[in-house]
């Protein structure tokens, strides 16, 4: 791991990626970071022993640049980088909704670009990072992106045409589960449980269900049916979920998230 990697705009996700890379064996001597605020840069340098630099300096020095800024800040950042970026540098974008063509049009000709949509479980090394190649990115560039983001969870390659759907399903996905846990905890309180006990019961149920989904190899319908005995408590709850259109609401919610991702890509706000 002798290549220099720069994380630009190091917020929570950027820091999670940085710390994961260090735990995976990357030398701090090969890691650069940039931050909007001087105090934030000092904090990262003290915590991880990495070099804090400016965006232009990072473009000149790093072999791979990982752009973790917000979508609305991407155009400004690319304008800072472009005059200083050798064309053989790999640029990885983690901005939701921004297509690789947006970066390619603003960077030196034939710059290899890889688009990655990760999610907040990167903070606990359980991310799902969805990876797509731009026009000039090779299999080697994708493998390098997988090596980097594999430090904080799993990776999956998809065609870029599927990125908006992946953003809706996986990038935003943790929020849906938090929302569900919040609602179920409120239900537990309504049923007479203290908040802390309701929370613990629901969180452990969520963890257990997730592990079974991951490790059992069973279809989710089969796993649900295993809990759903005839005329029992679970089937009564499932009936109410169906009566209230929960399945249709989830589908509509994910379509709305996908559509918003497309709006971001088109620059419509």
Describe the model.
The protein is α/β, with parallel strands linked by helices. 53% of the residues lie in helices and 13% in strands. The protein has twelve helices and eight strands. It has an eight-stranded mixed β-sheet, sandwiched between helices.
How does the SSE layout of this entry go?
Layout: E1 5-8, H1 12-23, E2 31-33, H2 38-48, E3 51-52, H3 55-61, E4 64-67, H4 74-81, E5 90-93, H5 100-104, E6 113-117, E7 127-133, H6 139-149, E8 153-157, H7 163-171, H8 173-190, H9 195-215, H10 220-227, H11 233-243, H12 246-266
Parallel strand pairs: 1-2, 1-4, 2-3, 4-5, 5-6, 7-8
Antiparallel strand pairs: 6-7
Short recap of the structure:
The chain has 269 residues and is an alpha/beta fold. It contains twelve helices and eight strands. It has helices at 12-23, 38-48, 55-61, 74-81, 100-104, 139-149, 163-171, 173-190, 195-215, 220-227, 233-243, 246-266, and strands spanning 5-8, 31-33, 51-52, 64-67, 90-93, 113-117, 127-133, 153-157.
